Amino acid sequence: HFSDTELYFAATKTGLFYVGTKAEKIQSAKRSPEKMNMYKEELVAYLNGELTYFTVPMDLSATP
Predict the structure, then answer these.
(1) What sign for the dihedral angle of Cα 57, 55, 63, 17?
(2) What predicted TM-score, i.e. pTM, was given to this entire model?
(3) What is the mean pLDDT of residues 4-30?
(4) Residue 21 CB: number of other CB atoms within 10 A?
(5) Residue 1, class by beta-carbon neighbours within 10 Å (0-12 exposed, 13-18 middle, 19+ buried)?
(6) C-beta of residue 48 within 8 angstroms of C-beta of residue 40
């Protein structure tokens, strides 16, 4: 949750490919909280104004 909004995010082996409010877009994704932690930490820091850019890998080829 961020500011009363539930955010969903997903990644491939290559990197982060989805951040949004619609869980149905990633329903088929496997859940792996331990692997997603680095993405979550950076997203939270970015949304809190602590980061201005991401260092985690992105996978733009998988973007829906």
Answers:
(1) positive
(2) 0.73
(3) 81
(4) 9
(5) exposed
(6) no
